[in-house]
Design goal:
Elements: H1 7-33, H2 37-65
Helix pairs in contact: 1-2
Organism: Paenibacillus algorifonticola
Protein name: Coat F domain-containing protein
């Protein structure tokens, strides 16, 4: 059974998603703009990997969303 995430864990997941989003943007820029075919191909592969990471993190948050408190904790 899943345990609710702590605030610190939620912050970590959010930071990780932000980092993955930045890597996705950087890989996209290089894969579109590079003149070297091997570099474009490598960045395209890295782009796919970072998109998968982002989706995994998002899925984790969605799984825990139902466990989030609906009222502020005291």
């Amino acid at each position: 059974m899943l345990q609710p995430m702590t605030a610190k864990e939620l912050e970590y997941v959010a930071d990780s998603m932000s980092n993955e989003d930045l890597l996705i943007k950087q890989c996209t820029a290089v894969s579109v703009g590079a003149s070297n075919q091997q570099l474009r191909q490598m960045c395209s592969q890295m782009l796919h990997t970072h998109q998968q990471h982002y989706q995994t993190l998002l899925h984790t948050l969605q799984q825990h969303q139902s466990m989030a408190p609906t009222q502020p904790q005291q």
